[in-house]
Amino acid sequence: MIRLHSAVCVPHPRGKQRAQQGTGAVCLPQAASKAPPRISIHSCTAAAPPHKPVPNHHRTRFRLPLPSSRSPTATMARQIAPSRSFHPLLTSRHYPPTSPAPPPRPILLPKALSRATAAAPRLPRRGRRDVVAASAPASSSPKTEAVTGAWGKVSAVLFDMDGVLCNSEEPSRRAAVSVFAEMGVDVTVEDFIPFGGTGEANFLGGVARLKGVKDFNTENAKKRFFEIYLNKYAKPNSGIGFPGALELIMECKNAGLKIAVASSADRIKVDANLSAAGLPVSLFDAIVSADAFENLKPAPDIFLAASKNLGVGTDECIVIEDALAGVQAAKAAKMRCIAVTTTLEEDELQQANPVFVRKDIGDISINDILYGGSNAYHNECTENTENSSSVGNATPGTLSGAANAEFVENTNSPSLKDQGFLGSRRDILRYGSLGISFSCLFFTIRNWKAMQFASPKGLLNFFTGGNSSIFATNEGESLSSRVQQIKKYLADFETGVSATYVPEFPRKLDWLNTAPLQFGRDLKGRVVVLDFWTYCCINCMHILPDLEFLEKKYKDKPFTVVGVHSAKFDNEKDLEAIRSAVLRYNVTHPVVNDGDMYLWRELGVNSWPTFVVTGPNGKVLAQISGEGHRKDLDEVVGAALEFYDERKLLQNNSLPLALEKDRDSRLTNSPLKFPGKLAIDVQNNRLFISDSNHNRIVVTNLEGEFICQVGSSEGLLDGQFDTVSFNRPQGLAYNSKKNILYVADTENHALREIDFVNETVRTLAGNGTKGSDYKGGGHGANQVLNSPWDVCYAPSEETVYIAMAGQHQIWKHNIRDGVTEVFSGNGYEKNQNGSSSTNTSFAQPSGISLDHELQELFVADSESSSIRAVNLKSGGSRWLAGGDPTFPDNLFRFGDHDGTGSDVLLQHPLGVVYASDKQIYVADSYNHKIKRLDPVTKKVTTVAGTGRAGYKDGPALSAQLSEPAGLVEVGEGRFLVADTNNSAIRYIVLNEGGADVRTLDLTGVQTPSPKPKALRRLRRRLSADTNVINVDGGSSMEGYLSLAISVPDGYHFSKEARSKFDVETEPANAIEIEPANGSLDSDGLASLKFKRTSSSSSMGRINCKVYYCKEDEVCLYQSVAFDVKFQEEVPSQAQITLAYTVVPRDNSGSSQLIAAGKNLKV
């Protein structure tokens, strides 16, 4: 996806477009994030990971601070209301958004044509010297990653654009002359030469200072400059590229070098020039433009950023430059520089000491780059370059002369005839353009769904990042000062002649939580925040607390949040699916289903989430994209309410609200509320359910009979089972050896541990706050997490693997040392497979399952709609099914189609399990199906579900599910499924005659009750798995109770999980038994003393939890209760033995009961 970064859009008071880069802010198009540009619109815009703040480029007097944090959660790009027309480039190319991702990085170009370029033949290059230094080592292959020797190692080439790749210096100067002519200022093209290569702001502003232009508005001049330049000089494929540029780029790529454009021009000009030169942006590994930098050339910042972005040291980079400032910048960055004389004479360039000078890019050979050049040779041969297209055309005498000049023939370089290229350069360009055209057509077809999200206004917003400094950081300013500055801005804005009005809601749209609303009727007189969201997007979930904060703070004010649901996936357009999401995430503000993206296009929105703030008169006041903007929203809303209240424009009329949570029967008919994931303990016949929206973990046996629950309230609190709290937990993984359950406590951003031995919960990592650490390595609460969605446990490694959906990575937690760190994924949100963890990328991984034999993790990569496999040794990944295996940045290839390999289409899968039949079973959530994937043949078939959401048992292919999110195997061919939107647990039984779907009857499971006042409750109801032994206690008033538990041969009591007991009495004060709780010794023995305080009948219950193991250390447990009933008083002392022999469960019996349909509703 093309990266759109976080954006704040505000109309300038007088309708002009202004752009500012403030500390922590970057203008569109920006290049301050590490996230690569992508060719499909991004599903979510997230806060980027920590990086150095972007320097302030143009400070003006309207400065309102961003959040004081310098983390990318505060990073925003600014833009104002777009003009009504712009160059056709802005509507002819697709520049949709993406979410910020990890460490800082300028915009990268996707390798959409990487396969084509990799296989491309070495192109003959007109005017190219094809010679090699005699002292250089011969390369055995043109695909050499880096070349070493006297010249030094070379791994990357950084091309300047104007004057190097594109013959655009003269057209730029002519366009600039036209700009000044419109101002009535007489300038010549020569006036601009000293300012070349320093960026448009200095290019125009320098001449303005030279000519003494008063009140010169740099940003307005830049905008007009771009309009003239793009319309007149930089039309697509207009031939402004230098001859030989494309060929040299291809030779560099074939030699295994990374290539980048590193220009002081703004990104809009870079893209236009490359298009005009016929150079696809996909050819480059990186594009670094001026937008995000304060210090342009001759400062080294741009080159240093390109080097860091490519992952190549500065001493391994070659720079090709035409401007004096560019050569100076390369030297300052400690890079070798080849200069070309397309703009300045050689004598002028030599002032900055380039390594050597060439006439133009057509005079630079791949051997110049790999092995270094010779000024002497250049001086002798520059006039004859037209006749030296290749060494293959040279005569022996020529070669001999070249050898004397320390050059020899490259015998591995065939002639044009040998290569089969008999045509001219024009023929090469013609056929090359044809190949590029077919590639673009193929790309467009593959990315068609993404293209549908683009709009002209959205593209215009992307390119015309405004210069409003209304949100610019200015340390030390108070909140009241910022509010006053926003109010001043609003005063100027209201007196302006140009404003964007929010379009009216189409009457055909469906609404939730309210009757249909209209701006001109219901929302008139209110400040409104439109939240453009889609419920699959993790970043859209991250901002819900911010909206709740605003709603609570301004609940008595004429302020409203309206959620504009603009679906990414087809399933998300369904009103019932959105209603379920509203209920699941407890959304209480009005929500409109804008499935056709009408408001999205009208307001130029291009990423999720985006906020549009409107005034009481319907004018658009600001537009902010991405998460992490609570403070910005708070300041704008607060200032707007004050400003318009002073002008008596506010109306606090009531809205026709009718909350969905007050009228949905699903919330009362089921004991569960949107269960997310499942885990099982087969040996002990237990099922664990993450009852996500009840903030608890429910434990039943495999027949659905209640055993216990852990937690019942929202929060992050460790302790005993009945006092702990969770926040929408999801993934579960069971450690059978220690009788511990690991929990992905998603909205607490934490990894929790449930200890069934001690009946306690503790936090292993995370502290309740969303983190942005993309490396990890910390312990406990000091290591922050970001929306962990699923977990699985590897017993041999004692490691918990975590699907970190919030930042698109797989993490791991080491049980032995408590360290939590990243395992795979670089944090970019895309579907990219690589050989190592650092060149692998995920897109909101939401389900993981372990294959112990193959040493792989299978991952349900939800936003790319694909299933991936991660190697446990290298951290690299491979593609299995779904998604787009060709274009990693395309997250819009989804659907519902079974088949093999690339034919398969999935839709936002959330669950995956590797089963005993060595098949992968997938919860294809938005297709409401369970599918089977063969990891060897990559064949996918539907096992259950019709593709339509519903609730129906019966034959699997006619049964209906609703967004199943988790599944687990309970026996060969038997699966339990968390049917999330139906708030039910479903059972699938596979057999030769087909499969059946049933509903598991949860016996004894109740909705959570309020916490008891006492810390420890009296357990009057025994769990379903407890064996009750009735004992006659006689009539003695005091005595001893001797516990004697034994295990059969081949078993022993667990050494790590000690068996324990506790005591209950009825009536409470009729008998005393001490100790009230304790542990059995290694032989299963314990002694308790009882003393009756009343002569009436009473009962003492001794509850025992027995943990025992086979010799292979598989941990089992048995729950036993001894009910000791005492008769009326007889003066005597008694010795009562409570004996019990553990009998291991026959787990096949329980499976047979399930298979036979016990406790299943049909």
Report on this model:
- The chain contains 25 helices and 55 strands.
- Helix 3 crosses helix 5 (218-232).
- Mean pLDDT is 79; it is low at 1-43, 45-147, 375-423, 465-469, 1012-1018 and 1149-1162.
- An eight-stranded mixed β-sheet has the order 2-1-16-15-12-13-14-11, covered by helices on one side.
- Strand 7 (317-321), helix 9 and strand 8 form a beta-alpha-beta unit.
- The protein has 1162 residues and is α+β, with helices and mostly antiparallel strands.
Concise account of the structure shown:
The protein is an alpha+beta fold and 1162 residues long. The radius of gyration is 35 Å and the shape is elongated.
What's the helix and strand layout?
Blueprint: E1 7-9, E2 77-79, H1 89-92, H2 114-118, E3 131-133, E4 156-159, H3 169-182, H4 200-211, H5 218-232, H6 245-254, E5 258-262, H7 267-276, E6 286-288, H8 301-310, E7 317-321, H9 324-332, E8 336-340, H10 346-349, E9 356-358, H11 366-371, H12 375-381, H13 396-404, E10 407-409, H14 416-419, H15 425-446, H16 448-451, H17 456-463, H18 479-495, E11 510-512, E12 527-533, H19 538-542, H20 544-553, E13 559-565, H21 575-584, E14 591-593, H22 598-602, E15 610-614, E16 620-625, H23 630-646, H24 666-669, E17 678-681, E18 686-691, E19 696-701, E20 706-710, E21 719-720, E22 732-735, E23 740-745, E24 750-755, E25 760-765, E26 776-779, E27 788-794, E28 799-804, E29 809-814, E30 819-824, E31 845-851, E32 856-861, E33 866-871, E34 877-882, E35 899-900, E36 911-914, E37 920-924, E38 929-933, E39 939-944, E40 954-955, E41 964-971, E42 974-979, E43 984-991, E44 994-1000, E45 1026-1034, E46 1038-1046, E47 1051-1053, E48 1060-1066, E49 1071-1074, E50 1077-1079, E51 1085-1092, E52 1098-1110, E53 1115-1126, E54 1133-1141, H25 1147-1155, E55 1160-1161
Parallel strand pairs: 1-2, 4-5, 4-7, 5-6, 7-8, 8-9, 12-13, 13-14, 45-53, 46-54
Antiparallel strand pairs: 1-16, 3-10, 11-14, 12-15, 15-16, 17-18, 18-19, 19-20, 21-25, 22-23, 23-24, 24-25, 26-30, 27-28, 28-29, 29-30, 31-32, 32-33, 33-34, 35-39, 36-37, 37-38, 38-39, 40-44, 41-42, 42-43, 43-44, 44-55, 46-51, 47-52, 48-50, 48-52, 49-51, 52-53
Helix pairs in contact: 3-5, 4-5, 18-23
